[in-house]
Write a structure and sequence with these properties.
single chain; 324 residues; alpha/beta; Quinone Oxidoreductase, Chain A, domain 1; Rossmann fold; 7-stranded mixed sheet; 6-stranded parallel sheet; globular; Quinone oxidoreductase; zinc ion binding; quinone reductase (NADPH) activity; NADPH binding
């Protein structure tokens, strides 16, 4: 038997239960992974609250790192004994051991420890596709990135710096502003004391930016559109403050024929060759030292409710992991 987190109904942090489960043996296309660490991400909150529906009872958690114990029929890209990391569906990473689809698993380089592997996959691959595929950044551009001191944000700060991109990042406090700047964010805006639209226009000389990366949703969506230059791209990749309100397509036309996309990592990593290329890019950035994964919070798996409370109240910075 192994310990895992299960939810039997949707709701607040209190619905997560620390229970014993039977991991079992992997079937065709599956692998059994003994996890050294698993990552905490805001998408876990969406599943816990029912914003993203899933069958119940169910697990939570989308990423982890550990060692493959066994593989099922047809699995050839990993084998028993391999060090692996992953980000992918279905939920269930909050566990000591889990049987899962083998498709999301990638071999973890020896130079990257398990804690880092668990903390970097979902957030790091997110930045990879945002910056290299959704809107391919070029050196010399200026961008707006919301929540610059979060786990995704701190990786984005460093990746932007490595690409020669000027990043404007929004944050919720002066302490978070200092953290984002230390990681490569050129300009920071405290959205609690400043109007981010006005500041972006001031920084860019009234031109706006060619792309906005927005994981906040309801509270920032309209303002983000107002920060874009004509023909700019609005990348809405999350909704931490709630779903984006209804709007008409004329809102895009009136602001200069803007583009809008709502990407999901799971579409970007669906093909094996894409996942391998994205992971190799991310691992290379980390191994070279151009990106450092800051694990600023660690919680025991049984303390996951407190971890969720801290995440939702925006007390966390950088990456957070759970230790089984």
């Amino acid at each position: 038997m192994a310990k895992a987190i299960r939810i039997f109904k949707i709701g607040g942090p209190e619905v997560m239960e620390y229970v014993e489960v039977e991991a079992g043996n992997p079937g065709p296309g599956e692998a059994r992974v003994r996890q050294a660490a698993c990552g905490l991400n805001y998408i876990d909150v969406y599943f816990r609250t029912g914003a993203y529906p899933q069958p119940l009872p169910g697990g939570l958690g989308m990423e982890g790192a550990g060692v493959v114990e066994a593989v099922g029929e047809g699995v050839t890209h990993v084998k028993a004994g391999d060090r692996v990391a992953y980000a992918g569906r279905p939920s269930g990473a909050y566990a000591e051991v889990r049987v899962m689809p083998a498709a999301p698993l990638v071999r973890l380089p020896d130079a990257i420890d398990f804690d880092t592997g668990a903390a970097m996959m979902l957030q790091g691959l997110t930045v990879q596709y945002l910056f290299r595929r959704t809107y391919r950044l070029q050196g010399g551009e200026t961008i707006l990135f919301h929540a610059a001191a979060g786990g995704v944000g701190l990786i984005a700060c460093q990746w932007a710096r490595a690409l020669g991109v000027t990043m404007i990042g929004t944050v919720g406090s002066d302490e978070k502003a200092a953290l984002a700047k230390a990681h490569g964010c050129t300009h920071t805006i405290n959205y609690n004391t400043e109007n981010f639209v006005e500041r972006v226009k001031e920084i860019t000389g009234g031109k706006g930016v060619p792309v906005v990366y927005d994981s906040i949703g309801k509270d920032t969506f309209t303002g983000s559109l107002d920060c874009l230059s004509p023909l700019g791209m609005m990348v809405s990749f999350g909704a931490a403050s709630g779903p984006v309100p209804a709007f008409t397509l004329n809102e895009l036309a009136s602001r200069g024929s803007l583009f809008l996309t709502r990407p999901s990592i799971f579409n970007y990593i669906a093909k094996r060759e894409d996942l391998d290329a994205m992971a190799a890019d991310l691992f290379g950035m980390v191994e070279s030292g151009r990106i450092r994964i800051d694990i600023n919070q660690r919680y025991a798996l049984q303390d996951v409710a407190q971890a969720h409370r801290d995440l939702e109240s925006r007390k966390t910075t950088g990456s957070t992991i759970l230790i089984p």
